[in-house]
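Is this the right way to post structure tokens for a design question? Let me know if I should format differently. Anyway, here goes:
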């Protein structure tokens, strides 16, 4: 599924309460939204799932993954971190019919006829990424 489960959201909120700065999820084989959880102790940057970096899974939604990009800043006076330049950068896996060759492309280098579908798919999943820029070009 392309949205976090209640268990994932509860765990992200719990980790925020403990003071976690960043949570990066994986394993669902599909992308899920990202956001910044505002907390009393610390804000937490959460990427619920980056999907597959590369795989031989041939469903369109499993061929789109993502890369987290951010700058983590630490203030020694307040002992808190902040985030700048937070991004989700789509990655697309391409492979030939026999699975003999494959490559993972960042969205900016992907020039296939399906790029528009990838952009629309990523936008539909990542639509409310509070505090995270979704790179579509």
């Amino acid at each position: 599924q392309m949205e976090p489960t209640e268990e994932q959201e509860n765990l992200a909120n719990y980790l925020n309460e403990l003071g976690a700065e960043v949570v990066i999820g994986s394993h669902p084989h599909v992308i899920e939204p990202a956001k910044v959880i505002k907390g009393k102790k610390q804000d937490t940057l959460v990427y619920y799932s980056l999907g597959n970096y590369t795989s031989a899974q041939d469903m369109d939604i499993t061929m789109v993954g993502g890369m987290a990009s951010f700058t983590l800043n630490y203030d020694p006076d307040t002992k808190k971190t902040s985030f700048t330049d937070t991004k989700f950068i789509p990655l697309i896996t391409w492979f030939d019919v026999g699975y003999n060759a494959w490559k993972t492309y960042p969205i900016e280098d992907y020039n296939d006829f399906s790029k528009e579908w990838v952009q629309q798919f990523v936008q539909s999943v990542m639509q409310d990424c509070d505090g995270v820029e979704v790179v579509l070009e």
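Format looks fine. Someone answered above. Worth noting: The first strand starts at residue 22 and ends at 24. The CA atoms of residues 44 and 61 lie 27 Å apart.
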